[in-house]
Amino acid sequence: MNDMRAVERDVDIHELKMQARGVDVFYGDNHAIKSVDVDIEDKTVTAFIGPSGCGKSTFLRCLNRMNDTIDICRVTGDITLDTENIYDPKVDPVQLRAKVGMVFQKPNPFPKSIYDNVAYGPRIHGLSRNKAELDEIVERSLRRAALWNESKDRLGEPGTGLSGGQQQRLCIARAVATNPEVLLMDEPCSALDPIATAQIEELIDELRSQYSVVIVTHSMQQAARVSQKTAFFHLGELVEFGETKHIFTNPDDPRTESYITGRIG
Amino acid sequence: MTDATAAGVPDAPRKSSLYAADARTTRRNKAEKRFRAYGLSAVSLGLLALVLLLISILSNGLSSFRQTYITIPVTLSAERLDPAGNRDAAEMARVTTFGYVPLLGQSLVDYVAAAGIETELGAQEIGGLISGEAPAQVRARVLANPGLIGQTIQVDMLVGGRIDGFFKGRVSMDSAGRDSNVSPEQLLLAQALADEGAIVTRFNWRFITAPDASDTRPEAAGLGVAIIGSLYMMMIVLVLALPIGVASSIYLEEFAPKNRITDIIEVNISNLAAVPSIVFGILGLAIFINFAGLPQSAPIVGGLVLTLMTLPTIIIATRASLRAVPPSIRSAALGLGASKMQSVFHHVLPLAAPGILTGTIIGLAQALGETAPLLLIGMVAFVRDYPSAPLEGFFDPASALPVQVYNWTQRSDPAFVERASGAIIVLLVFLIFMNAMAVLLRRRFERRW
Prior knowledge:
B: mainly alpha, MetI-like fold, 2 domains, three-stranded antiparallel sheet, 3 strands
């Protein structure tokens, strides 16, 4: 009997995908992130919440080393992807970013056709051997981003001609086309209306079946709706990290409670 | 909320009518009206200056595209042109241009007599109607085709500059009376020949194709060598300045670390754009001619000097258009796992291309109109031979359009005023063409995001 229970629990607790230990981020002299430890599990949606300027986006950008592009930014501590340290000197950030995809706050499709937007990642990473395979990847990615039905007859049209919500879904399709293991989303719905937001949230829930998703959001309702794990950041510190249900119903830290109830932030 | 309470209770609003403008509003509206008037007058002043400039250039210069020709039969007598009688080009070349002068003069005298035109002029003065350029042309034609000797052929010749001026209204009977180069009687004869149909004024291709001519033959002067020289220089500038400028801008803007050295480089590039162009001429003279030993008056040196001059313009324009590409495009590419170089070449550069092309074309247009540095490297020389085809042609002496304008305005014969204005028109047409191309390219490639 006991054995059976153990198996059940294994299914519920997913494999660890990324692990951050003692991460500090400095922008010049500004200590933006202070010793953050987070575990990101596979096939789970992890939400980062917190007031503006608390460092949640900065931390998200550490996970695929997008902060490398900022000259004055310095990151210390360990972040591992499947036990490999992503800040190891041997790691090429280009390879890392193919595994850890990113969707940005503002929809930013390339001013190219819808097809070329999605096909760009597979092309530069050589994921397809011929046109037919590439077509298949594009279709699969657009289907996964719930954009196929709207776009299948206009793949040649510019991606910038889509509506805001469609553009964001195109960006998600573009990100999943490279077959990443982790998908980072930096406030993906902040520029969208409620209907488009609902579509994206539904999409995030579906993506969970294949990827580990990390989402930064300003909306606590959104975090509660889509995530299984939640991390609350405040003034560069990770205040609390745990099951979403736990954080929203029975937070351990008084700061978390005051943020959730709207007293700070 | 907190701000409102901190400011205390605001005063109760004063009652006033919306129909009556208060003093403050009236003053503000007047100031705006005044500013609009200033702006409008500034624009009209600029337009007026432009219109006056165009009118003066067009009225002076358009006539240079028409030229007066005389067509008469000329008998190429064998005893004069081929004394040896063996039709050998080398032998015939011994008869110089001066040997042809009396031949043409006599032909005209004969034609005048045959046409029954009364004149008191002697043979010398009748022959004076024909341009000094004509004998050389007939000689060249005969040497190229010795079979013509002994035949009577219709020859199409330029008339002298004064006679040409008479048909264009530049020379009148009055002015001819005071002029030692032409007499009123010659003008009368020319008028009679025109009535006869022998002298006609028609479109002048030679102005665009022919090389420059000496001070005494304005009627023969053309822009051929200058246009080729300018064209060669533009080719050199384009081939050198575009890749160097774009490569250095991309490096500085996208790859170079932001530190003291790159700051110094940036300041220096901006300063170089403001350096007077004649300084580049001195640099070219010192480095390319005196040190590197390149030939004087050659398009290669002019092209190199103009490249140096154009580079800052191209770099500044390119950097500005690279900076105008939204950073979200770069992050999108990087986030997908593109390398820095892929993100620049696949996404940033295509979006910046219209700006880069516009900057390049404007830089080229600037270089095309530049005179001062070319004077210093010897492109003022009097060049009558066309440079050969590239690449050797780059090392042959040539002139340039703006230098040709400068050159012609220095000459005493008033016919050169017309030529210089005509050359300015040609230069302007090239510039307008280039600017139109810049606008067109920008429209064509402009993308919105």
